[in-house]
Design brief:
about 210 residues; Hypothetical protein af1432; about 55% helix; binds fe (ii) ion
Length: about 210
Protein backbone atom coordinates (compact mmCIF):
# COMPACT_ATOMS: atom_id res chain seq x y z
CA UNK A 1 0.00 0.00 0.00
CA UNK A 2 1.34 3.42 -0.87
CA UNK A 3 2.00 5.83 1.98
CA UNK A 4 -0.71 8.21 0.80
CA UNK A 5 -3.28 5.37 0.62
CA UNK A 6 -2.45 4.34 4.17
CA UNK A 7 -2.68 7.93 5.42
CA UNK A 8 1.00 8.32 6.29
CA UNK A 9 0.70 12.07 6.43
CA UNK A 10 3.07 12.65 9.33
CA UNK A 11 6.41 14.23 8.45
CA UNK A 12 8.69 11.82 10.26
CA UNK A 13 11.77 13.48 8.83
CA UNK A 14 11.14 16.38 11.23
CA UNK A 15 11.30 14.11 14.26
CA UNK A 16 14.81 15.14 15.22
CA UNK A 17 14.21 18.84 14.70
CA UNK A 18 11.07 18.82 16.83
CA UNK A 19 12.79 16.83 19.61
CA UNK A 20 10.53 13.78 19.33
CA UNK A 21 13.74 11.76 19.34
CA UNK A 22 16.12 12.39 22.25
CA UNK A 23 19.54 13.79 21.43
CA UNK A 24 21.14 10.52 22.63
CA UNK A 25 19.16 8.48 20.06
CA UNK A 26 19.43 10.71 16.99
CA UNK A 27 22.40 8.96 15.37
CA UNK A 28 20.63 5.64 15.85
CA UNK A 29 17.35 6.99 14.53
CA UNK A 30 19.00 8.49 11.44
CA UNK A 31 20.54 5.09 10.65
CA UNK A 32 17.23 3.30 11.20
CA UNK A 33 15.15 5.75 9.16
CA UNK A 34 16.11 4.47 5.66
CA UNK A 35 14.70 1.07 6.71
CA UNK A 36 11.44 2.59 7.96
CA UNK A 37 10.04 4.17 4.79
CA UNK A 38 7.49 1.42 4.31
CA UNK A 39 4.22 0.40 5.99
CA UNK A 40 4.09 3.83 7.75
CA UNK A 41 6.88 2.46 9.94
CA UNK A 42 8.53 5.84 10.33
CA UNK A 43 5.38 7.11 12.05
CA UNK A 44 4.74 3.82 13.87
CA UNK A 45 8.29 3.75 15.26
CA UNK A 46 8.12 7.28 16.65
CA UNK A 47 4.73 6.68 18.24
CA UNK A 48 5.99 3.43 19.80
CA UNK A 49 9.06 5.32 21.08
CA UNK A 50 6.77 7.87 22.73
CA UNK A 51 4.74 5.05 24.31
CA UNK A 52 7.93 3.45 25.67
CA UNK A 53 8.87 6.77 27.27
CA UNK A 54 5.45 6.87 28.95
CA UNK A 55 5.85 3.30 30.26
CA UNK A 56 9.46 3.42 31.47
CA UNK A 57 8.94 5.61 34.58
CA UNK A 58 6.45 3.02 35.87
CA UNK A 59 8.93 0.14 35.59
CA UNK A 60 12.27 1.12 37.14
CA UNK A 61 13.55 -2.44 36.71
CA UNK A 62 13.61 -1.84 32.93
CA UNK A 63 16.72 -0.42 31.25
CA UNK A 64 16.00 2.50 28.93
CA UNK A 65 19.42 2.01 27.31
CA UNK A 66 18.03 -1.24 25.90
CA UNK A 67 14.29 -0.50 25.60
CA UNK A 68 14.47 2.75 23.62
CA UNK A 69 17.03 1.60 21.01
CA UNK A 70 15.10 -1.67 20.65
CA UNK A 71 11.87 0.24 20.00
CA UNK A 72 13.54 2.46 17.39
CA UNK A 73 14.94 -0.62 15.62
CA UNK A 74 12.21 -3.22 16.15
CA UNK A 75 10.58 -2.96 12.70
CA UNK A 76 13.56 -2.19 10.43
CA UNK A 77 13.14 -5.71 9.03
CA UNK A 78 9.95 -4.78 7.17
CA UNK A 79 12.32 -3.23 4.61
CA UNK A 80 13.16 -6.81 3.57
CA UNK A 81 9.52 -7.84 3.01
CA UNK A 82 7.96 -6.99 -0.39
CA UNK A 83 5.39 -4.21 0.06
CA UNK A 84 2.88 -6.11 -2.08
CA UNK A 85 2.83 -8.83 0.61
CA UNK A 86 2.60 -6.63 3.70
CA UNK A 87 -1.15 -6.97 4.09
CA UNK A 88 -0.72 -10.75 4.44
CA UNK A 89 1.95 -10.41 7.12
CA UNK A 90 0.28 -8.41 9.89
CA UNK A 91 -3.09 -7.21 11.15
CA UNK A 92 -6.46 -8.94 11.43
CA UNK A 93 -6.08 -10.72 8.07
CA UNK A 94 -2.54 -12.01 8.63
CA UNK A 95 -2.14 -15.19 6.56
CA UNK A 96 1.59 -15.45 5.97
CA UNK A 97 3.44 -16.14 9.23
CA UNK A 98 6.69 -16.79 7.34
CA UNK A 99 6.77 -13.16 6.17
CA UNK A 100 5.90 -11.91 9.63
CA UNK A 101 8.80 -13.96 10.94
CA UNK A 102 11.09 -12.64 8.18
CA UNK A 103 10.70 -9.05 9.39
CA UNK A 104 11.85 -10.19 12.82
CA UNK A 105 14.93 -12.12 11.70
CA UNK A 106 15.99 -9.49 9.16
CA UNK A 107 15.25 -6.81 11.74
CA UNK A 108 17.53 -8.47 14.29
CA UNK A 109 20.32 -8.66 11.70
CA UNK A 110 19.96 -5.02 10.61
CA UNK A 111 19.59 -3.79 14.20
CA UNK A 112 22.77 -5.56 15.30
CA UNK A 113 24.67 -4.07 12.35
CA UNK A 114 23.47 -0.53 13.11
CA UNK A 115 24.39 -0.86 16.79
CA UNK A 116 27.83 -2.23 15.89
CA UNK A 117 28.39 0.71 13.54
CA UNK A 118 27.56 3.05 16.42
CA UNK A 119 30.05 1.33 18.74
CA UNK A 120 27.43 -0.06 21.11
CA UNK A 121 28.74 -2.77 23.47
CA UNK A 122 28.22 -6.44 22.67
CA UNK A 123 25.87 -7.18 25.58
CA UNK A 124 23.47 -4.40 24.54
CA UNK A 125 23.68 -5.40 20.87
CA UNK A 126 22.82 -8.97 21.75
CA UNK A 127 19.93 -8.04 24.01
CA UNK A 128 18.40 -5.64 21.48
CA UNK A 129 18.77 -8.16 18.66
CA UNK A 130 17.16 -10.88 20.79
CA UNK A 131 14.20 -8.60 21.55
CA UNK A 132 13.76 -7.65 17.89
CA UNK A 133 14.01 -11.30 16.85
CA UNK A 134 10.59 -12.40 18.10
CA UNK A 135 8.90 -9.15 19.17
CA UNK A 136 5.67 -10.08 17.34
CA UNK A 137 5.73 -13.87 17.44
CA UNK A 138 7.26 -14.82 20.81
CA UNK A 139 4.47 -16.00 23.10
CA UNK A 140 6.02 -14.63 26.31
CA UNK A 141 8.40 -11.78 27.00
CA UNK A 142 12.05 -12.63 27.62
CA UNK A 143 12.49 -9.94 30.25
CA UNK A 144 11.06 -6.67 31.57
CA UNK A 145 12.92 -4.86 28.77
CA UNK A 146 11.30 -7.12 26.16
CA UNK A 147 7.90 -6.69 27.82
CA UNK A 148 8.09 -2.89 27.57
CA UNK A 149 9.22 -2.97 23.93
CA UNK A 150 6.29 -5.24 23.06
CA UNK A 151 3.80 -3.13 24.98
CA UNK A 152 5.09 0.11 23.43
CA UNK A 153 4.89 -1.44 19.95
CA UNK A 154 1.34 -2.70 20.48
CA UNK A 155 0.14 0.48 22.20
CA UNK A 156 0.60 2.19 18.85
CA UNK A 157 -2.63 0.50 17.73
CA UNK A 158 -4.61 2.51 20.28
CA UNK A 159 -3.08 5.95 19.66
CA UNK A 160 -4.73 8.56 17.41
CA UNK A 161 -2.24 8.07 14.52
CA UNK A 162 -2.38 4.29 14.94
CA UNK A 163 -6.17 4.11 14.83
CA UNK A 164 -6.34 6.50 11.85
CA UNK A 165 -3.83 4.55 9.80
CA UNK A 166 -4.85 1.03 10.84
CA UNK A 167 -8.61 1.46 10.38
CA UNK A 168 -7.96 2.64 6.83
CA UNK A 169 -5.49 -0.08 5.88
CA UNK A 170 -7.50 -2.83 7.57
CA UNK A 171 -10.67 -1.63 5.83
CA UNK A 172 -12.61 -1.31 9.09
CA UNK A 173 -15.08 1.34 10.17
CA UNK A 174 -14.04 3.22 13.32
CA UNK A 175 -16.71 1.32 15.28
CA UNK A 176 -15.50 -2.07 14.04
CA UNK A 177 -11.90 -1.09 14.63
CA UNK A 178 -12.48 0.16 18.18
CA UNK A 179 -14.40 -3.02 19.07
CA UNK A 180 -11.47 -5.10 17.76
CA UNK A 181 -9.00 -3.02 19.78
CA UNK A 182 -11.08 -3.22 22.96
CA UNK A 183 -11.25 -7.00 22.64
CA UNK A 184 -7.48 -7.23 22.21
CA UNK A 185 -6.28 -5.24 25.21
CA UNK A 186 -5.81 -8.10 27.67
CA UNK A 187 -4.27 -10.55 25.23
CA UNK A 188 -1.96 -8.11 23.40
CA UNK A 189 -0.69 -6.04 26.31
CA UNK A 190 1.17 -7.18 29.39
CA UNK A 191 1.84 -4.35 31.84
CA UNK A 192 -0.94 -2.67 33.85
CA UNK A 193 0.22 0.77 32.71
CA UNK A 194 0.03 -0.20 29.03
CA UNK A 195 -3.50 -1.53 29.54
CA UNK A 196 -4.46 1.67 31.35
CA UNK A 197 -3.06 3.80 28.51
CA UNK A 198 -4.85 1.69 25.88
CA UNK A 199 -8.18 2.15 27.64
CA UNK A 200 -7.54 5.88 28.01
CA UNK A 201 -6.85 6.21 24.26
CA UNK A 202 -10.00 4.29 23.39
CA UNK A 203 -12.07 6.39 25.79
CA UNK A 204 -11.15 9.48 23.75
CA UNK A 205 -12.79 7.94 20.67
CA UNK A 206 -11.78 8.17 17.00
CA UNK A 207 -9.71 11.28 16.15
FE1 LIG B 1 7.00 -5.86 14.08
FE1 LIG C 1 5.98 -2.56 15.32
Amino acid sequence: MHREDAGCEFQAKDACADRTVDERHRALYQRALPYLHTRCNDIHTLVAYQQAKLLLPHYPDADDRVVLPAVLLHDVGWSAVPESSHSTAFGPRMSNPALQRLHETEGARIAAAILLELGVDAATREEVAAIVDGHDTRPNALSRNDELVRDADRLWRFTPPGTRIDSRRFGMTPAEHFAWLEAGIDSWLSTPEAKRLARAYLAEGPR
